[in-house]
Input
Amino acid sequence: MPTASPLILGALSPVAAPSSFPPTPRHSKCNVSLKPKKLCLSRRDAALLLFLSLSSPSPAFALGISGPKDWLKEQKKKASSFLLAPVGASRESLRSAYLLLMESDADYTDQDFEKFYNLFRSAARDCVPQERNSFVTFQANTGVEVCTFRLIVKNAASLLGSKDPVKLKAEALLDDLIRSFTSVSGLAGETTFKLASNRRKIADAVEDTLSSLDKFEQGIKDCLEI
Output
């Protein structure tokens, strides 16, 4: 009986998988399928997709995850008490300074006025140039922002557009607040505080500054949407 040729035997034998195809890992949850429409992602691919979705400026498409802007907005809201803490501290300093000025004691001393001045400088938060010490002045001259209230506005409004009316209003309220502090500083440096009537003028300016501070705080809250 004639033997079959190798070519015929090869054609009748099962086709072996090429050695260049790697075996499917046992730990993989993806089954090899001939259906081209079915997509199976590894954990690494899924993690990469999640990272890219969070890095996108727009909300993540089908994953139901908000974008970084929304996430940052929520974080700012949560940190609002820390952001507004300097405003609250300045308010307390101004109230104490106001009470010192309103004392009816006729023997108002230099020490009393020094206490007022220290409270006022603390409340101003380095936003009045003539009230800054030499080191803070040096920082300002080198381009470093030293006004705490201005830094608060930049932080609170960082997610808003440059022409956003809420941001523009907060910046206008900041300018009003700085003008109020500057007015108190000018009166304190030019007025003879020994007279009760002069101290009353300074106290009125401090009261106006307190009002400006309250409005400024509300402007920051509007930026944060709280």
